[in-house]
């Protein structure tokens, strides 16, 4: 098994537009890490299993209507309700590979026209990722990939605005990977980034998002 010296796990987040390949890349990265003997779990937000998550899920499926600010706060609450478990997993040595996080929260809500500073406020104090991998694909290309499903945000014009907001959110923890490359090539890059992150985070304390 991979030795991490009893140290903490890494918080690794994958972000990108709908159909950017995040979900399959997360699953592959998880099996790779586990194959290396690394303690790792795959998480995703929204976590649709909780009661807040069920409200979010109904909203995304257009089965319920919620005001933009209300749904923003529900997405945030959905991360808050998982924060303590997240922290104890990480401190216990488990690496978390997370499909979407706070950046989705900001980029999607800002794309609807909410003010970015207002959007950031409820995210302050959530755990800060050690690494954010952004899978970069053109909105038009993403739409061609087997087409979008029927969920609320799956329209090219909206995804373009989301992409612009993602760009403005990039910080020092971000690595941009070209998601239009072959799946295997993308996966190789992810593996290297993740392995480096897991060894480098050993010496670093977990911190909170400050925005
Ligand atoms: P999935 O298709 O990946 O389940 O995402 N979203 C997600 C937000 O608007 N705010 C958030 O905080 C998060 C985590 C992105 C469902 C959709 O929900 C959007 C796509």
From TrEMBL:
Highest taxon in the source lineage: Eukaryota
GO cellular component, one term: mitochondrion
Pathway(s) it belongs to: Pyrimidine metabolism; dTTP biosynthesis
GO BP of this protein: dTDP biosynthetic process; dTTP biosynthetic process; dUDP biosynthetic process
EC number: 2.7.4.9
Molecular function as annotated in GO: ATP binding; dTMP kinase activity; nucleoside diphosphate kinase activity
Domain called Thymidylate kinase-like: residue spans: 14-189
Keyword Magnesium: no
Annotated keywords: ATP-binding, Kinase, Nucleotide biosynthesis, Nucleotide-binding, Transferase
Family: Belongs to the thymidylate kinase family.
Protein name listed in UniProt: Thymidylate kinase
Organism expressing this protein natively: Brachypodium distachyon
Gene name as annotated: LOC100846276
């Amino acid at each position: 098994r991979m030795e991490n010296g009893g140290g903490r796990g890494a918080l690794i987040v994958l972000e990108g537009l709908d159909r950017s390949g995040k979900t399959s890349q997360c699953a592959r990265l998880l099996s790779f890490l586990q194959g290396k003997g690394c303690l790792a779990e795959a998480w995703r937000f929204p976590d649709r299993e909780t009661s807040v998550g069920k409200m979010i899920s109904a909203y995304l499926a257009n089965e319920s209507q919620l005001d933009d600010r209300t749904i923003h706060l529900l997405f945030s609450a959905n991360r808050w309700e998982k924060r303590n478990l997240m922290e104890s997993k990480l401190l216990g040595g488990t690496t978390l590979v997370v499909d979407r996080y706070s950046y989705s929260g900001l980029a999607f809500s800002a794309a609807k026209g909410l003010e970015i500073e207002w959007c950031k406020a409820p995210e302050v104090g959530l755990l800060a990722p050690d690494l954010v991998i952004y899978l970069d694909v053109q909105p038009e290309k993403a739409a061609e990939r087997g087409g979008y499903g029927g969920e609320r945000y799956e329209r090219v014009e909206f995804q373009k605005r989301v992409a612009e907001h993602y760009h403005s959110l990039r910080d020092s923890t971000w690595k941009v990977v070209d998601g239009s490359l072959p799946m295997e090539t993308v996966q190789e890059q992810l593996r290297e980034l993740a392995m480096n992150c897991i060894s480098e985070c050993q010496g670093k304390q977990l911190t909170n998002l400050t925005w």
